[in-house]
Amino acid sequence: MRLSLITLVDIIKIIPKLPSLTLNINSGIVIAVRLRPDSGAGNSDRSARWRQFLRWFQPGLGIKRWLFAMVLGTALIGLGLAIFLLDIYRANPGSPWLEILSLSVLPRWLRAVIFGGTGILFLGFSAFRLSKTLLAPYVRPGRAVVDEVAKHRRLGRGHRIVAIGGGTGLSTLLRGLKYHTSNLVAIVTMADDGGSSGRLRKSLGLLPPGDLRNCLAALSDDEDLLTRLFQYRFREGGELEGHSFGNLFIAALAGATGSFEKGIMEAERVLAIRGKVLPATLRDVTLVAEKAPVVDSQTVRVEGESSIPEFPGQITRLQLEPSDPPAYPETLHAMLNADMIIVGPGSLYTSILPNLLVPDLVSALRASRAFKIFICNVATQPGETDGYNLLKHMQSIEKHVGGDLFDLIVANDNFDGNLVEGISWVRAPAQGYSTPIYTADLVNNEIPSHHDPKKLSATLIALLEERTGPLELLNQDHVNNVSESN
Questions:
Q1: Mean pLDDT value of segment 340-359
Q2: CB 482 within 8 Å of CB 439
C-alpha cells in the first residue's frame, strides 16, 4: 500500500513536466476573462435590472391599476378555494397529509406570510413573463419593454394636431412633432403632377402619392431606413426608370385593396407610423396659375403644379380645376376635433394654397375651435415667392381664401446663415398684420433655408400649452426686435 502511494505521488509530480496534448497557442481569452473585474459589473447589472423593474410602477403607465385588479381577482379566487378546502379539512381533521400541506405545525401568521408571499411571487413572475411574451413582436432589440410602453402611453396622451401642407416642409414638421404626440393627422395636397407621381397619375389614373410617401416616411419609427427605401429611384429598367419605390409601394397597395384611400390606410398599418396621412380631396384636380411676366403686363395661364415654378414671372392668381372639389370626409372630422391646426411650412403656391383652395377644408378650418397657426417659410422659393416677405405671404393667402383664418403666425428671426444663390430670407415687417406674430430661431443650422424639426416642434408645443398666456405682448416684443434688426 505504501509503494502504491509513493508511486502515485511521483506520477503527480511528473505530470506537469509532460508536454501538453493540446495546441500550445495562447489566444489571450482566458487571461482576459481572468483579469476582468466582474464583481462590480455584476452589482451594476443587478442594480440596473432592479431600477428597470421599479419603472413599471411609475405613474402614467397604466400598470398599477391592472396589477391591483389581478391581485384582487386572485385573492377572490383564493378565498373561494380556501372555503372549499376548509370544508375538506374539517371533514377530515386527523389526516396527516392535510396537516403537512396546511403547515399546521407553524403559527397562523407565519403560514399566512408563506402562502401569501409565494402567491405574490408566482403572480408577479407570471405577469412579467406574460407581458414580455405578448409584447415581444413589438419591441426592438436593445430597447427595454418598459421604455416602449412608457413612450407609447406618453405619445398616446399627446395633443391632437392636424398639419396641412405638402412637400419637404410638411415632412420636416411631422419629423419633429412625432416625438411629442402620436395623435397626428397630416393633410396633403393632391395637385402634384411631376416626376414619378405624375407618371403614375397619367398611366394608372392614380392620385399623386409623392407627398403622402414623404409624410409616411417622416412619421415612421425607423425613419432613416424607410426614407432611404421610399426615396430610392430606379435608375434603369425601362418603365421602372425614374420611379421611386415609395410611390410604387402605395400604388401596389391601392391596387391590392381596390381604392386609393384603403391603400393609404394599409400603408399606415404596415409601416406602424405615429399618426395618419390623409389626402385633402380624392378628386383628380389640376393646379392652374396666372403669372405676369416681367417684360409683359399680360398674364399667362400655366397648368400643372410642376410647371408653375419653372415659368418666369409673378403669380397673380391660383385655382384648382375643377374649382370646388369635395374634401375627404375624414380630414374634416380630424380638423373639427383637433387641439391645434398647423398650416405650413411649405411652398406657398404649390403646397399650401392647393389645400386651402378646397372649399370644405377652409370652412372646417374656420369652424374648428382648435388653435390655428400659420408657419411662414424661412426663405423664399424661386419661381413662386421671389422677393416675398412675411406680410406678402399673408396677403396672398387672404387674396385667395379670405382673412381671419389663423390665431397666430409663427416666423423665423434668425438670419445668420448663408443661403444659396437665388433665394433670400423671409423677414417680418413691423406693421400691417391682422393676426399676432410670434418669432423665434427656427433655422436648421445645416440647411439654413429649411426649418429645424426639433426647434419648430418644441416651439409649437410650447405655444399650444401656453395658449392662455399673454401672447400678444410677447409677440409684439418679438416683432419689435425683428424690425430693429432690419
A1: 95
A2: yes
